[in-house]
Design brief:
The protein contains five helices and seven strands. The mean pLDDT is 90. Strands 1, 2, 3, 4, 5, 6 and 7 form a seven-stranded parallel beta sheet that branches. The two termini are 26 Å apart. The protein is α/β, with parallel strands linked by helices.
């Protein structure tokens, strides 16, 4: 993979949406995910249609020997396959397996974004007040512009999600918008 020359490239980063929903707080998360999935599916379609790289950053469910295909298969075999199918990675999607909250922590994501000459990330997924927040902070400290479509992020605790979005906007300069406001064909979509 050669590095593109345009340092202002844009990528869509989907955090922790490939999920078996067999964890603590799943019953609180699922209703929010149900609202987000159709919005995220539309966002994915638009990004793919515009040729914008789509990168999934996902927990490994404690399956340390697995690869992304196994994680997708495990999620599709679970009781909430209907939440996975509309947003599943396609053959062009990139995938980073993560072990902690941030998509950047101990993963090759920063290097991948550098190789793709990405200067702007659109962060979507779960959970707003945890993994999305920490990923936004790590993107910010790496001098990436961050856009968060507030209707394409799921939460466990709505009041904490609202606070997290406000923190991203005020403390990290993130652009908080609706998914409809993102134009993947415009090179300034994330700014």
């Amino acid at each position: 993979m050669e590095r593109r020359s345009d340092p202002t490239g844009l990528a869509l980063l989907v955090v922790d949406m490939i999920n078996t929903y067999e964890h603590e707080d799943a019953e609180l998360l699922v209703p929010s995910v149900e609202r987000v999935v159709p919005v995220l599916a539309g966002l994915l379609d638009r990004a793919r249609g515009a040729g914008v790289p789509v990168i999934y950053a996902n927990d490994n469910f404690g399956l340390w020997r697995s690869h992304h295909g196994e994680l997708v298969d495990a999620a599709l075999a679970g009781s909430h396959a209907d939440l996975i199918e509309p947003i599943r990675p396609d053959d062009e999607s990139l995938f980073v397996v993560k072990a902690r909250h941030s998509a950047f922590y101990e993963t090759p994501l920063a290097y991948l974004l550098w190789r793709l000459a990405v200067g702007q990330v659109v962060l979507a997924g779960a959970v707003t007040e945890q993994c999305v927040l920490y990923s936004a902070l790590d993107a910010h400290i790496r001098h990436l512009e961050v856009t968060v479509p507030k209707d394409a992020v799921a939460s466990i605790h709505p009041h904490l999600a609202s606070a997290a979005l406000e923190m991203m906007e005020l403390n990290m300069g993130a652009r908080i918008v609706t998914a409809k406001e993102i134009d993947f064909t415009d090179s300034s979509a994330g700014s």
